[in-house]
Amino acid sequence: MLFSVSVLIFVVLRLLPGDPVSIAIGAGHRGVGAEELDQYRTESGLNSSYSVQYWLWLTKIFRGDFGVSYFSQEKVLTMIGGHLMPTVELTLTALIAAVIFAFALAIIGATWPRSFADRIVTAIASLGMAIPTFITAIILLLTFGIWFPILPTRGYISFSENPIENMRLIAMPTMTLAFAAMAPILRMLRSSLGEASTSPWTRTAEGKGLLWPKIVRKHIFPNALIPTLTVVGITFGRMLGGVVLIEFIFAWPGIGTLMVDAIFKRDYMILQATILFAALATIIVNFLVDIAYGVVDPRLSFKNK
Amino acid sequence: MKITKKESNTLFRRVLRKPLGRISFGIITLLFISAVFANFLAPMDPNELDTVNIFAKPSFHHLFGADDLGRDVLSRVMYGGRISLIIAFFASLIAMSVGVLWGFLAAQIGGWIDDVMMRIVDALLSIPIILLALILVAALGTNVAVLAIIIGTILAPATARLARSAVIGELQLDYSHAATVVGASRLRILFSEVLPNTAPVLMARAVICASDTIIIEASLSFVGLGINPPSASWGSLTRTGYEQLFNGYWLVLAPAVIILLAIWSFNTLSDQILEALDPRSGS
Amino acid sequence: MMPLLNVKNLAIDIEQPRGESLHAVRDISFIVNKGEKLGLVGESGSGKSLTALAIMRLLHSPYQISGSIALDDTELYSLSAKEMARVRAGQLGIIYQDPTSSLNPVFTVGEQIIEAIQLSEKVSHAEARTRAIDLLTEVGVKDAKTRANNYPHQFSGGMRQRVMIAMAISTNPKLLIADEPTTALDVTTQARVMELLSRIVEQRGLAVILITHDLGVASQFCDRLSVMYGGKIVETGSIKDVISAPLHPYTKALINSVCTVDLDVTKPMIAIGGQPPVLSNLPSGCTFHPRCPMANTTSCITTMPELVTIGASRTAACDLIDTKSGSKGFSHV
User: Are A211 and C119 inside 8 Å of each other by CB?
Assistant: First the structure.
């Protein structure tokens, strides 16, 4: 899977018009002759055929060498490393918040099915799934940035430097990302809880003397968790896309900002590496979800029955 | 067992019978009309400068206010609808044609070709949509035609998946077997029997494609990688509005609200189509 | 002596979104004494399972229940939800028909039994666990200590039913309701499970309501029998009396249709003609009259026969019964 993705990325990027070499050298503001351009090209391997380039890239990766940004001549890996932390902070915080809220709301909805609260829960889920992230961002910016200005609207400071300011700055980006991420999880969990509520063993639980709210939390929830985990994995993958926009809107110096810059500058090496990482992260998360499946559903972990 | 013309009319009518169906269809029609006939319906020329009224708040004169050059926001939004809806239309067209063809062929041919085709679809689906869009735009540029093609291409894989599973479902039903027995060729079965029966589901998907296109185009324009000024789409209007956020919040509010309205209408219409498919007793 | 369970004029209606409610159970009354085993016998759709669930107060909308159900003189339907939950935990026990879907798949059987125990009394987890293991051994689960950590899907059908039995009796209930406990099992397992049930019930002196459509099973286990048809009780009596000398035509037909080992193979099996009554279209008068070999054209079609006491604890609901013992004619109660 990773392999096919890498091929895909490589092919697509090579379609990018705009000669990176000219841009790179042009950035140095030096007058260059055709020979120098050509020499640079040969060194960077851009003169060889595409397949050779791909092979070179792939093998270098296995040695941990992601190449050097055409533009800034820094090692790509270093650049990514420098921008990794903010993105990880944002994504993890948003994912955790999304999961917590999704779980809480779904359980509330399932405990009082078809009630007013339940209808609100469903509406929230639909809303979250339909609103584009940048519009949520705009709404939050308007509310907390302009009308009731209590939160800063852009920027970043690391947690170690200034924890309070860090939390204030991360608030809106997290809310934006979390709202979008929470919606599909909430919907899946609520519907799984609803389905499992009709299972005969809920009647057994009630017959034993349990009350419905407890039954939802203790008995139905673990059963409904199983299909929900898949959605969590998928949602994480989509978050990696959404985070790009959000970083741009809130001036959050993470991988997303790095990517958008790289696109404007036609910086292949960075782009290749970042997308590869994104795909890798998604695959890892889905792998973890598969493992979690085995833990939560006892029917799956017993191969010999 | 074809779906006759009468049956597809009934589906349409069933959708319109429900209040949500009427509302969503109504809003979409309204948006289309205001875009197509913008030159008749817009209160002002969208490019007309009115320097006296820079950043005017919403008033009777400028229903949605005026922007940094005094242009009427409402008129700009109406004209902007042209570009957004054109892109939505063509992107959906592309996504549906390519996707349906891909999915139908994969389902019909089967075997390892089917596997490979779906493997490609899966690889494409594993890349977050926004990232894919950003890169393609960076590669190919940002005018209306190119955007439509790019977005259409991005939405095609999911359509392919849907089309394929719809076809496989139909091919297992009795009428497909019956058609084969009678001697119909595979292609004929596919296009004259299966297609009409999968049409409603595909239509629902087409409507979602329109909605998704609006989202993607708006997101791209917002970042500056979509439609750029001076042309206006709902997305680019949101961007310019966002840039002027502290000068006048209404500049961003108007296009954002319209985008939301459009997305909601398309999503709801699609839901209504799917609901109307369900054989409901007493509906 | 006061009966343990006193059901009076129980009626269960099913609300329909359009139109009238369906009358699934219509005005039935019966009692269960302490330590007594009552059998509730009838076809599918006769309302027997619904009766059981109504006693446990496990029927929620669209079911509407009216009448009185008193356990040890406490009116169950006047209790709050919490109080009823406590009654279920401590005084009632129920075994369901399908053990597979009635056990939560993500908890071990041990945990499920422990939960039941801890709901009925305050004991430590360790203590509850010991009791659970003992119970599992008692119901015939070998190697109970290890098996308690297994999940339901790791047990066979018969074993799962034993687990359910263990769970139901773990709280020392006064009344055990067994809703078709053996229907989903094969015949040999059936016999074993009923044997186990008999033994346990004897040892503990539990009162039991056994719900079944199988007369054979009922006759071996129960002390008394009530026959249900179309949502009404048509006959009651001691097991011996009812089986050997059935009064109601339906009971007679049921007994005649039982397949025994010494049945004459040359003759066709006797079945009850016709179809069970459809709730939305109940017959007028006596519900059984369309299928009754003795039905006449007057009273049977127009009037619903009352349950009439015919002998000591012997009742039947048929206007055509010729009272054999006791006074001639009917003594209406």
Answer: no
Quote the minimal CA–CA distance from A305 to chain B in Å. Answer: 32
Q: Å from A76 to nearest chain B CA?
A: 18
> Distance (Å) from the C-alpha of residue B277 to the closest C-alpha of chain A?
21
Separation of alpha carbons B244 and B231, rounded Å:
17
Give how far Cα A165 sits from Cα of A159, C36, C41, Å: 8, 73, 73
Residue A20 pLDDT: 46
Say if strands C74-75 and C63-71 run parallel, antiparallel, or are unpaired. antiparallel
Residue A95 CA to residue A243 CA, distance in Å, equals: 11
| For residue C62, cis peptide bond before it (omega within 30 degrees of 0) | yes
State the Cα–Cα distance between residues B129 and A238, nearest whole angstrom.
8
Give the tokens for residue C38: 């009552």
Q: How far is CA B37 from CA B6, B32, B42, B174, B266, in A?
A: 32, 8, 8, 48, 20
Residue-wise pLDDT tens digits, C60-102: 888 999 999 999 989 999 999 999 999 999 999 999 988 888 9
CB contact residues (below 8 A), chain B span 240-259, against chain A: 242, 245-246, 249, 252-253, 256, 259
Q: Quick one: pLDDT at residue A2? A: 56
pTM value?
0.78
**Confidence band (pLDDT; 50, 70, 90) for B140?**
confident
Quick one: three-class SS letters along B81-116? HHHHHHHHHHHHHHHHHHHHHHHHHHHHHCHHHHHH
Distance between CA atoms of residues A245 and A253, nearest Å: 12
Sheet holding C175-179, edge to edge: C92-95, C175-179, C207-212, C37-41, C224-229, C232-238, C314-316, C308-311
Q: What is the ipTM of this complex?
A: 0.84
Question: Is residue A110's pLDDT more than 50?
Answer: yes
- Enumerate the residues of chain C whose CB falls inside 8 A of the CB of residue A203: 58, 96, 102
Please tell me the number of Cα atoms within 13 Å of A233 on its side-chain side.
21
| Token digits of residue A245 | 């926009």
A219 interfaces chain B, CB cutoff of 8 Å: no
Mutation site for B-interface testing, chosen from A16, A127, A135, A247 by largest number of B Cβ within 10 Å: A135
| A284: contact with B, CB 8 A cutoff | no
Q: Which chains pack against B, by 3+ Cβ pairs within 8 A? A: A
Q: What angle do CA C87, C89, C92 make, to 5 degrees?
A: 65
Say if strands C314-316 and C232-238 run parallel, antiparallel, or are unpaired: antiparallel
Please give the Cα distance from C278 to B212 (Å, whole number): 51
- Under an 8 A CB cutoff, do A142 and B223 touch? no
Helix (H) or strand (E) holding A184: helix A163-196
Strands across the sheet containing C63-71? C22-32, C5-14, C63-71, C74-75
Q: What chain B residue is nearest to A256 in terms of C-alpha separation?
A: B131
Q: Which helix (H) or strand (E) holds A187?
A: helix A163-196
Contact between residue A47 and residue A240 where contact means Cβ atoms under 8 Å apart = no
* pLDDT, position B279: 60
Nearest Cα residue to C231 out of C92, C73, C98, C63: C63
In this model, does residue B47 exceed pLDDT 80?
A: no
- Round the CA-based radius of gyration of chain B to a whole number and report it: 22
The pair of structure tokens assigned to A261 is 């810059």
DSSP one-letter string for B235-251 = HHHHHHHHHTTTT-THH
H-only helix segments in chain C: 48-55, 81-90, 109-120, 125-138, 144-147, 157-169, 187-204, 215-221, 239-244, 249-256, 299-302
With a cut of 70, say whether residue C52 has pLDDT above it. yes
The secondary structure of residue C7, as a DSSP letter, is E
